[in-house]
Design brief:
Helices cover 52% and strands 13% of the residues. The protein has an eight-stranded antiparallel β-sheet. The protein has 388 residues and is α+β, with helices and mostly antiparallel strands.
C-alpha cells in the first residue's frame, strides 16, 4: 500500500515536472543561453566594439587629468543630453565611458548613450546608443542579450513575467529532483549513464544525470535571478534574518547660494584621502542643485567586480562626506546581497567561475531536448499500447 502511494505521488510530481518543463522550460532555454553569453559580457562587449572602447597604451602610460577627460566628454554630448556618470576603465587598454540621457518618444524612458574618451589623450574615440527601452533591437549586442535574458525584450512587464516563470522553474527543478530520487536505493544507477545502452535509455540517463549534477547550480541561478528581478521582496525576506542597508538618496548639506561645485580633481582627492586603496568604478554626477557626487571605489577584497559596495556620497559644494558605505558598515544581510550577483554571473571565482556559468547556461537546452524526446517516446509507447 505504501509503495502504491509513493508511485501515485511520483506520477503526480512527474506530471507537474513535465508541464512546467514544457512551457516554462522553453523560456528557460533562452534565459540559459543568454546567461552563458553574459558570463563574459564585458570581454564580449569590448571585442565587438574595439574601435570605440579600446585604446593604445603609450610608453609613459600617463593618464590625463580627470577634469580634462570629463570636459572632452561634455563637449561631445548633445545640448539636450543629461550627463549621468562616468565609468572608469577596467584595464589600461580601455577608454572612459561618459553616460548621458536624451529625451525619446516615451517621456518615461529616455534613451541612454555612452561617449568614450581616451585616458591618455583626453580625446573622444566615439559614442553609441546603449539603451532604447522602446526599441530594444537598437541596443548593442551585449545589452540586447542582457534585456532578452531578464525581460524577454518585453520591458518592465517582461521582467515580471520572467520573474514568475523563474518561480515556476524552481518547482520544475525541485520536482525533477523528487522524480530523480531512486525509490529502490539504486543511487549508482541514478547517477551514471549506462554504457552501450539503446538510444531511449541513453536519452533518459542523460536527462536524469545532467539534471541532478547541474540541478544544484541551476537552482541557485534561478533563485538568485528571481531575487534580482524582485529585489524589494528579496531584501524584505533577507531582512527578517539580518538587516539590509536601505537604498537612500542623500543631498548636499551646504547652502546653495553663490556656491560653485567642486571639480573632479577635488572629488578624487577627497576619495583617495578617505579610501587610499582600491580601484575606481564610477562617479555619478549631481543631477540638480541639491544633489551629491556618488563615488564607487571598489576595495581590493570586494567580491563584486563592477558594482562595489564601498561608496562615498560627497557634497557637491563643500566636498564634505555626507555618507559612506564600506566593509565596516556591512551587516550579514549586506554581505549576502553582495555575493548574490557575483555568484550569479560567476565572477566571484574569476575565469573558472564564469566558465562554470557558461557551461551551466547550456544545460537548460540539453534538459529541454532530452525531456521532450523522453515525453514523445512515452507518448508513442502509450499510443501503441492502446492500439494493441
Amino acid at each position: 500500500m505504501l509503495n502504491l502511494t509513493l508511485k501515485n505521488r511520483r506520477k503526480l510530481w512527474l506530471k507537474v515536472h513535465l508541464y512546467l518543463g514544457l512551457f516554462a522550460g522553453a523560456v528557460f532555454v533562452i534565459i540559459g543561453l543568454t546567461g552563458s553569453l553574459l558570463a563574459f559580457e564585458y570581454p564580449l562587449d569590448e571585442a565587438l566594439n574595439a574601435d570605440l572602447m579600446t585604446v593604445s597604451v603609450y610608453d609613459n602610460k600617463t593618464i590625463m587629468p580627470l577634469d580634462d577627460i570629463v570636459a572632452a566628454g561634455l563637449k561631445a554630448a548633445p545640448a539636450n543630453g543629461t550627463v549621468l556618470n562616468i565609468d572608469f576603465p577596467r584595464h589600461e587598454q580601455l577608454a572612459y565611458a561618459l553616460w548621458f540621457e536624451q529625451p525619446s518618444g516615451n517621456p518615461n524612458f529616455p534613451t541612454r548613450h555612452q561617449i568614450f574618451i581616451n585616458p591618455y589623450t583626453a580625446q573622444v574615440t566615439g559614442q553609441r546608443l546603449l539603451i532604447d527601452f522602446d526599441h530594444i533591437w537598437r541596443d548593442p549586442f551585449k545589452d540586447f542579450i542582457l534585456r532578452l535574458h531578464y525581460t524577454m525584450c518585453l520591458g518592465e512587464n517582461g521582467m515580471t513575467i520572467v520573474g514568475f516563470i523563474g518561480i515556476g522553474l524552481l518547482f520544475s527543478l525541485l520536482t525533477g529532483l523528487i522524480v530523480w530520487y531512486p525509490l529502490g536505493g539504486q543511487f549508482k544507477k541514478a547517477l551514471t549513464i549506462k554504457r552501450n545502452a539503446s538510444f531511449t535509455r541513453f536519452n533518459f540517463d542523460l536527462h536524469k544525470t545532467m539534471g541532478f549534477y547541474g540541478g544544484f547550480v541551476l537552482l541557485y541561478l534561478v533563485l538568485s535571478g528571481v531575487y534580482l528581478i524582485f529585489p524589494d521582496y528579496g531584501r524584505g525576506l533577507v531582512s527578517v534574518f539580518s538587516p539590509v542597508t536601505p537604498w537612500t538618496n542623500y543631498h548636499s548639506v551646504s547652502p546653495i547660494a553663490d556656491k560653485i561645485p567642486i571639480n573632479m580633481t577635488k572629488v578624487v582627492a577627497i576619495t583617495d584621502a578617505y579610501f587610499p586603496d582600491g580601484s575606481y568604478q564610477y562617479i555619478v554626477f549631481p543631477q540638480n542643485a541639491q544633489d551629491v557626487y556618488v563615488v564607487g571605489k571598489r576595495a581590493n577584497d570586494e567580491v563584486n567586480q563592477h558594482h562595489p559596495y564601498r561608496q562615498l556620497w560627497i557634497d557637491q559644494y563643500s566636498g564634505k562626506i555626507v555618507h559612506e558605505q564600506n566593509a565596516d558598515t556591512r551587516s550579514a544581510g549586506d554581505i549576502f546581497e553582495e555575493w548574490l550577483y557575483p555568484l550569479h554571473t560567476g565572477e566571484a571565482f574569476g575565469f573558472i567561475g564564469q566558465l562554470i556559468i557558461l557551461i551551466t547556461g547550456l544545460l537548460p537546452l540539453l534538459l529541454y531536448i532530452t525531456g521532450v524526446i523522453r515525453w514523445l517516446q512515452k507518448r508513442k509507447t502509450a499510443q501503441n499500447s492502446k492500439v494493441g
